[in-house]
Design goal:
One of its GO terms (molecular function) is delta(3)-delta(2)-enoyl-CoA isomerase activity. It is found in: Peroxisome. Keywords: Isomerase, Peroxisome. The structure is a single chain. Helix 1 crosses helix 4 and helix 5 packs parallel to helix 6. The N and C termini lie far apart (about 70 Å). By secondary structure, the chain is an alpha/beta fold. Strand 3, helix 6 and strand 4 form a beta-alpha-beta unit. Strands 1-2-3-4-5 form a 5-stranded mixed beta sheet, covered by helices on one side. About 25% of the residues are buried. It is elongated. The protein folds into 2 domains: about 90 residues, Acyl-CoA Binding Protein (Up-down Bundle), CATH 1.20.80.10; about 120 residues, 2-enoyl-CoA Hydratase, Chain A, domain 1, CATH 3.90.226.
Length: about 240
Amino acid sequence: LFFRFKSWEADFNQSVEKVKQLKREPDIPTKLKLYGLYKQATIGDVEGKRPFLLSPAQAKFDAWKEYKGKSKDEAQQMYVEFVNSFLMMETKAEAATAPEGLEPVPGLDVTLENKLCWIKLNRPNKYNALTWEMYNGITNALNYANGADTTVTAITGTGDYFCSGNDLSNFTKVKSPEDLPRMASDAGKLLRDYVDAYINHKKALVALVNGPAIGIAVTVLPLFDLVVASDKMQPPNQRVEEQ
């Protein structure tokens, strides 16, 4: 009897091409994992000394070393499965949902269920960081809920984080110094409208903080009527001392 084991090389090469064609750049942990698996799958075990200072080179070395001992075929399989899982999560995040009359926004799911308006931050691979579009989307969703047949509005996150604050890509869209005054003015209005939507909300407003909350996500918590926080919230810059 002869057994033919599946070769992952063709699937691996296809996955590499899929990564090259991503519309949005993955976060750093994802990029490092892809790097480590790719190196293990194409070269094998990492060699040489670990870079001494904290640097991108050291992070890459550690990411590669994570898979030391894995055969190239095993690493190819792990790479393929990780890419498929990553792309599935990205697709779900992009497939935003919204009730009739409210424009869908990537990274945001808004649903009406049994007198409850759910606003879910759905960018788990980006730790639910807020894009400018999501700021507007949440503002519009809160205003929409004011006129909906609901009594409670709840905001929560998907994945491990509640919200990691601003998406840093918000600040990389400046094409020239001349754009700065206009962008600063637009950002100021966007944030005022965002905060006003919380302050002027007419329904009971509940935050279900399922994980770490950072930056603007913490700033607006006092504007909720009720905050239910997981023990994974880990508020930053807050020291708790036992008496």
